[in-house]
């Protein structure tokens, strides 16, 4: 680690040139190849997938869209239908039902939405928007245009982060170095994600998530190294020696923090869905590149710009000294207060319900939102989520099933397709995201029997939620278990990683409660998975940074309480400044069009603030004081020679030191 950092410091111009070349090459490659994002959720064994396969085999292949128009006359509707027929890949435009001035047109394409691509989706949505009368569209192709990735707010978050850095450290160089490092690494990461979209399933949302995490941890990692470097300068070390000290401590912490974040993100792979795999890989690529930039690009920039950095003298005492002494002197009240706040914030989690919110929550002006509103006005709330009952049924069986379903939903006459496939379209009397609709779906599956399969957006979303929920135990166990093992290996301790895991679970509960309180139910099925993986990894950043500093002081000979005080004083300002910076980056994503990104932005903002202020600065020190020397217990046979030794000052006139293997 030290050798790599020193090499980058000595050869700063070459390192900066290599980073610029990598950034330029990756961006050029991404622009040249384009992107191939896919939002398809593949659930081959799900009942809704079986229904879709039956429809394809019966000749009902290709994307099916509904265009909804409000018009007092027929002329605007016919004109729109004519323009839709001229679009590439459109096979048929058939008139649908009419109610209260609202007309539905059924548009069929010659391929699935993911094959048709974004350009076809944009052309289709453009024709609908230019209808001259209120018109919208619903279906997989229309959904691709509801909230395209947009990273404009990331710049606002970086500007806000720069202001915090300037106030906290009083140096323009301290502002530029983390921002430049994070921007370069995230730029490379986004280009890599675009290239990866050609070889694996990468959802569109991955771009915003990769930027969200990359910018947040990128500024943090650079700030951790920069803070330790400044401490060395304050102690009178030359620049190269100060950087070497930072490499031995903070750079090591950055590596372990980055690895822990990636381990948490890769826990999403245990869910076994290509959709989530793409999000996990994209986010992990962003984190790894920001970590690598903190170890290579930052030392090079320090060589080029470090001479201009102003370093304030260290003032004894101060807020963090008083807080650290107060927490360690009275740990019980602080721990109780922190747990109480977390418990209160966690209460809304009891109302957590997984599901995909209806299109009426899509961005204003989107064709999907307009279609949802028009369908509800003309045909009732259930028209936004019809349920298809598909099976190989004769006429008598299909009619019997229809009469049964009519008791709880509106059902038209059966449609018969080649291969003796019958299709019944049941329209619920409640909205797609209403719990009553989920109850109806369960009842339909019970009364339809094993030979009838349920399809449509409501059934697909229910199967998606069920698949994620069924794999949650394995996901949680893998993320928590591997993170505990990594921390145990880093700190050679049993209790520190276990307490960290418990506290991270508390933060996860509070974060979920905040998201449910702000956005209500339902919450996208994959959001809790991403939030848990993300916040579990990010919270480990502060855990590693704080505990590494405490352990450093403990190994120098301080008792546990003294080490906690010194560690909190040394890192408190950096941790809170880093959390505020990360929160400002995250909260800037709370204003984008995509609802799930807004939820992720709010959730991660709450997570980092809770974790930095309540957990790392209050609860962790309070618990560690209570545990005392037990914090550092580790099986002797697993302890390396480096961690067996502890320097303990001997209280004599010469202040000699001894090396003890008993601590």
Automatic annotation (TrEMBL):
<feature type="transmembrane region" description="Helical">
    <location>
        <begin position="282"/>
        <end position="305"/>
    </location>
</feature>
<protein>
    <submittedName>
        <fullName>MMPL family transporter</fullName>
    </submittedName>
</protein>
<keyword id="KW-1003">Cell membrane</keyword>
<feature type="transmembrane region" description="Helical">
    <location>
        <begin position="332"/>
        <end position="356"/>
    </location>
</feature>
<dbReference type="Pfam" id="PF03176">
    <property type="entry name" value="MMPL"/>
</dbReference>
<feature type="transmembrane region" description="Helical">
    <location>
        <begin position="472"/>
        <end position="491"/>
    </location>
</feature>
<dbReference type="InterPro" id="IPR004869">
    <property type="entry name" value="MMPL_dom"/>
</dbReference>
<keyword id="KW-1133">Transmembrane helix</keyword>
<feature type="transmembrane region" description="Helical">
    <location>
        <begin position="254"/>
        <end position="276"/>
    </location>
</feature>
<feature type="transmembrane region" description="Helical">
    <location>
        <begin position="150"/>
        <end position="169"/>
    </location>
</feature>
<keyword id="KW-0472">Membrane</keyword>
<feature type="domain" description="SSD">
    <location>
        <begin position="179"/>
        <end position="304"/>
    </location>
</feature>
<keyword id="KW-0812">Transmembrane</keyword>
<feature type="transmembrane region" description="Helical">
    <location>
        <begin position="209"/>
        <end position="227"/>
    </location>
</feature>
<feature type="transmembrane region" description="Helical">
    <location>
        <begin position="568"/>
        <end position="592"/>
    </location>
</feature>
<feature type="transmembrane region" description="Helical">
    <location>
        <begin position="12"/>
        <end position="31"/>
    </location>
</feature>
<feature type="transmembrane region" description="Helical">
    <location>
        <begin position="526"/>
        <end position="548"/>
    </location>
</feature>
<dbReference type="InterPro" id="IPR000731">
    <property type="entry name" value="SSD"/>
</dbReference>
<feature type="transmembrane region" description="Helical">
    <location>
        <begin position="604"/>
        <end position="627"/>
    </location>
</feature>
<feature type="transmembrane region" description="Helical">
    <location>
        <begin position="498"/>
        <end position="520"/>
    </location>
</feature>
<dbReference type="InterPro" id="IPR050545">
    <property type="entry name" value="Mycobact_MmpL"/>
</dbReference>
<comment type="similarity">
    <text>Belongs to the resistance-nodulation-cell division (RND) (TC 2.A.6) family. MmpL subfamily.</text>
</comment>
<feature type="transmembrane region" description="Helical">
    <location>
        <begin position="176"/>
        <end position="197"/>
    </location>
</feature>
């Amino acid at each position: 680690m030290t050798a790599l950092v020193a090499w980058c410091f000595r050869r700063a111009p070459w390192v900066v040139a290599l980073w610029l070349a990598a950034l330029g090459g990756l961006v050029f490659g991404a622009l040249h190849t384009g992107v191939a994002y896919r939002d398809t959720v593949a659930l081959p064994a799900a009942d809704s997938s079986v229904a879709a396969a039956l429809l394809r085999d019966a000749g009902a292949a290709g994307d099916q869209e509904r265009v909804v128009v409000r018009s007092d006359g027929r002329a605007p509707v016919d004109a729109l239908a004519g323009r839709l027929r001229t679009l590439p890949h459109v096979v048929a435009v058939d008139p649908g039902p009419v109610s209260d001035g609202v007309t539905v047109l059924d548009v069929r394409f010659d391929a699935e939405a993911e094959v048709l691509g974004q350009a076809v989706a944009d052309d289709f949505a453009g024709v609908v928007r230019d209808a001259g009368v209120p018109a919208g569209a619903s279906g997989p192709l229309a959904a691709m245009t509801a909230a395209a990735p947009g990273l404009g707010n990331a710049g606002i978050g970086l500007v806000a982060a720069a202001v915090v850095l300037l106030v906290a450290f009083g140096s323009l160089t301290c502002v530029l170095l983390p921002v430049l490092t994070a921007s370069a690494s995230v730029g490379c990461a986004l280009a890599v994600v675009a290239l990866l979209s050609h070889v694996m399933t990468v959802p569109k949302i991955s771009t915003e998530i990769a930027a969200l995490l990359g910018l947040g941890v990128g500024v943090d990692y650079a700030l951790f190294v920069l803070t330790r470097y400044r401490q060395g300068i304050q102690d009178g070390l030359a620049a190269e020696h100060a950087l070497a000290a930072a490499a031995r401590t903070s750079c090591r912490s950055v590596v372990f923090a980055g690895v822990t974040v990636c381990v948490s993100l890769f826990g999403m792979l245990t869910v076994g869905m290509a959709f989530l795999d793409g999000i996990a890989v994209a986010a992990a690529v962003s984190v790894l590149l920001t970590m690598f930039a903190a170890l290579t690009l930052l030392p090079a920039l320090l060589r080029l710009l470090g001479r201009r950095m102003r370093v304030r003298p260290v003032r004894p005492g101060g807020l963090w000294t008083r807080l650290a002494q107060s927490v360690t002197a009275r740990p019980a009240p602080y721990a109780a207060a922190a747990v109480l706040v977390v418990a209160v914030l966690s209460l809304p989690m009891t109302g957590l319900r997984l599901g995909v919110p209806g299109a009426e929550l899509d961005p204003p002006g989107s064709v999907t939102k307009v279609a949802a509103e028009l369908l509800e006005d003309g045909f009732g709330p259930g028209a936004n989520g019809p349920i298809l009952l598909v099976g190989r049924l004769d006429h008598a069986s299909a009619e019997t099933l229809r009469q049964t379903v009519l008791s709880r939903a509106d059902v038209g006459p059966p449609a018969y397709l080649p291969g003796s496939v019958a299709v019944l379209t049941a329209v619920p009397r409640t909205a797609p995201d209403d719990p009553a609709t989920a109850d109806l779906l369960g009842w339909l599956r019970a009364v339809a029997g094993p030979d009838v399969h349920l399809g449509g957006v409501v059934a697909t979303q229910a199967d998606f939620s069920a698949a994620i929920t069924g794999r949650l135990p394995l996901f949680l166990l893998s993320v928590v278990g591997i993170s505990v093992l990594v921390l145990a290996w880093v700190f050679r301790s049993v209790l520190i990683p276990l307490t960290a895991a418990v506290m991270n679970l508390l933060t996860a509960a509070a974060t979920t409660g905040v998201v449910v309180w702000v956005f209500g139910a339902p919450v996208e099925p994959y959001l809790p998975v991403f939030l848990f993986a993300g916040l579990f990894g990010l919270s480990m950043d502060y855990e590693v940074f704080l505990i590494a500093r405490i352990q450093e002081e403990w190994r120098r000979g301080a008792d546990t309480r003294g080490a906690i005080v010194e560690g909190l004083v040394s890192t408190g300002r950096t941790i809170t400044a880093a959390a505020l910076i990360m929160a400002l980056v995250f909260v800037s994503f709370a204003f984008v069009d995509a609802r799930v990104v807004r939820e992720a932005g709010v959730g991660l903002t709450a997570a980092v603030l809770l974790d930095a202020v309540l957990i790392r600065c209050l609860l962790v020190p309070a618990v560690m004081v209570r545990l005392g020397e037990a914090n550092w217990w580790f099986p002797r046979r697993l302890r390396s020679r480096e961690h067996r030794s502890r320097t303990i000052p001997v209280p004599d006139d010469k202040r000699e030191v001894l090396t003890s293997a008993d601590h």
